[in-house]
Design a protein that fits this description.
4% of the residues lie in helices and 40% in strands. It is built from one helix and six strands. It is globular and about 50 Å long. A hairpin with a 2-residue loop joins strand 4 and strand 5 (100-104).
């Protein structure tokens, strides 16, 4: 890739992490996960108001051999998240929803379907079921 000054820029290789290593408030995660289940929770069409886009949101349980977590899929991401599909997630972030972790990919991230993974998802270690509490440290 060429930079503006004509020099070439060296791209870093992505570092893939396991689901059990995810922590609240972090971002920039690259993961290889398998979709366990997908549930569409919001689907709004443009029939009522023509200037608004269609909105779709799905909660998908994804995971690897170490743990599972809920992934919030939006719009075109919903079509990719089919149960049994292996997915590469790049530049994901951890959002907090009602004190629990959710994995999400915004416009800076990417979701790709990959060849089927050989691991089985460890569903009994669901990180989205752990409730976190924000504690203010006294100065």
């Amino acid at each position: 890739m060429a930079a503006r000054d004509g020099s070439t820029r060296v791209l870093k290789k992505p570092v893939f992490v396991k689901v059990e290593d995810l922590r609240p408030g972090t971002d920039g995660h690259n993961l290889v996960v398998k979709v366990v289940k997908s549930n569409v929770i919001l689907e709004k069409g443009a029939a009522a108001v023509s200037h608004l886009r269609n909105s779709r949101i799905a909660e998908c349980l994804v995971g690897d051999e170490t743990a599972a977590i809920l992934f919030t899929a939006r719009n075109q991401q919903v079509d990719v998240m089919k149960p049994g599909t292996s997915i590469i997630i790049r530049n994901a972030k951890i959002d907090m929803f009602k004190g629990c972790m959710r994995l999400a990919v915004d416009k800076w991230g990417r979701i790709e379907v990959t060849e089927p993974a050989t691991f089985s998802v460890k569903e009994d270690n669901n990180l989205s079921l752990i409730e976190y509490e924000l504690v203010n440290a006294a100065n």
